[in-house]
Amino acid sequence: MRVRYTSRARGDLSGILKYIDERSPQGARNVKRAIQKAIELIGEYPSSGRRAGEQEARVLPVVRYPYLIYWSIEAGETWIVHIRHTARQPWQVEG
Q1: pTM (2 decimals)?
Q2: What confidence tens digit (pLDDT) does each residue in 31-70 have?
Q3: Neighbour-count burial for 54-91, b at 16+ CB within 10 Å, e otherwise
Q4: Domain 3-85 fold
């Protein structure tokens, strides 16, 4: 299934990688690779993960790293809507 990103998700990913790159360029590459693998998995299996609240959004953790990827399926496309660090307050999915 085609995977697309909301502007929020693009900003999330950019911010995460920029923050890590300032501290560890290799770490940023590793995190980027892990997030990309998780998103590829979501594209192949869009019903994977678990429901995020009562809405249609789903969530999947990134293997080995403390990030969660939220997505929804709309019009036959998978939309990555948010990427966040697990230490943050739980995200309240807007409906």
Answers
A1: 0.91
A2: 999 999 999 999 999 999 999 876 789 999 999 999 999 9
A3: eeebbbbebeebebbbbbbeeeeebbbbbbbeeeeeee
A4: YaeB-like fold (3.30.2310)
State how far Cα 7 lies from the chain centre.
12
What one-letter code names the amino acid at 18? K
Is residue 58 helix, strand or coil? strand
Q: Where are the alpha helices (DSSP H) in 1-95?
A: 7-23, 25-44
Q: Where are the domains of the chain?
A: 3-85
CA distances to 31, 52, 53, 80 from 94, in Å: 27, 10, 9, 14
